[in-house]
Amino acid sequence: MKRKILSLACTGCLAAAAAPAMAQPPEVTASEVVEAIEGAFGATHGQRRNHTKGMCAGGEFVGTAEAARHSRSPLFSGRPIPVVARFSLAGGNPKAPDTARSGRGMALEFRLPQGQLHHITMLNTPVFGAASPATFRDMMLALRPDPATGRPDPGRIEAFKASHPDHRAQAEYFAHNAPPASYASSAFWGIHTFKFVDGKDGVTLVRWKFVPQDGETRLTEDELKTAAPDFLERALIERTARGPVRWDMMVSIGQPGDVQDDPTVQWPAERKQFKAGTLTIATASPQKGGECEPINFDPLVMADGIAPTDDPVLRFRSPAYAVSFAKRLGER
Questions:
Q1: Catalytic residue among 45, 51, 119, 164
Q2: Range with the poorest average pLDDT among 13-17, 123-127, 207-211, 307-311
Q3: pTM of this prediction?
Q4: End-to-end CA distance of the chain
Q5: What pLDDT shows up at residue 332?
Q6: How many domains, in total, are found in the chain?
Q7: Which residues are annotated as a binding site for heme?
Q8: 180 — phi, psi (to 5°)?
């Protein structure tokens, strides 16, 4: 995995190996992106730099026979797989209001047999806000507060929007869709394209979405004005106290020509889908001292049977998460 990630840091790694002096610098480094996030939101001591505000949850996942036909991953054995989950708000502000028109995250660590782990990290939007790490960095730079006002400069934000069309799809989604009324009633998308690998090494390109069995509900205009700033944590704790919360993992199968390396572009809605399993969340708790708190939910932690594509954002997330993780460990 390290070799694959490293390949993104040069143009033509074989040529670079033969002639190091000709190697090109990376478009953007993981440290640059994390520093840009810190510049936009500040750095909360000992905490994640992005998706700082969050909570823990726990439960299990049971895969389906249909998924097992496409992937040899033990995730789809049909047996219950223990899961540690984290729900969160995008951004580095630990006091961000739960009514903010920003992303909500679901991160899952599947604890497979023989000590194996598999991570899935998702957003409550069908697309991401950047087709490249550089766009994400530039978005954070545009959000950096002006020292004179304490707020981002509107002109700088407009300039970013005009020069980065790959940001528009997610921005339009936020503009036309109110935030979820509960984590339990929110869908979550995998955003990226992945590969399911079967027992004969056959590859199926897939994207997935976790669909809440409670149904999807969003805040009304009145609720956007009156909801408490931290209602999401309380709502999920109260909901799990009444009984388990479930999401169905729905997988779409790619066709030739479907985008594999751009998380800002959706696949056509008519792609064939199948149910790959059901996630059950039985407990929820505050993040502080919770089981999810120390986990680095690196999306490239994958068990055999599921593999990444060459999506540059997906590949970049692992080193960026590592930089953030090292920072918060060093602050303890």
A1: 51
A2: 13-17
A3: 0.91
A4: 28
A5: 75
A6: 1
A7: 321
A8: -65, 150
